[in-house]
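U., I forgot to send this yesterday:
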Amino acid sequence: MKNNKIWFVRKTYGYGWTPATWEGWLVLLIWLIIFIPITLMVKYDLILSIIGIFVATGLLIYVCYKKGEKPRWQWDREEDINN
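Result:
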């Protein structure tokens, strides 16, 4: 059984996603828990920190893409309401 529940919705303005369910907020919280120590590690190992930031952010984008609405540039939700 495939679960098609959307965890992230498109942003109203610009490009990207915002959490729409508790699962989306949990993913964002986990990302923050991983991201903050990586950024604090910069003073010890710059290269490893940069790699960690790219990997953590890449995984977040992947989850948003898989569990979110199709991304596109937009200026408001009026277009979605009319369609």
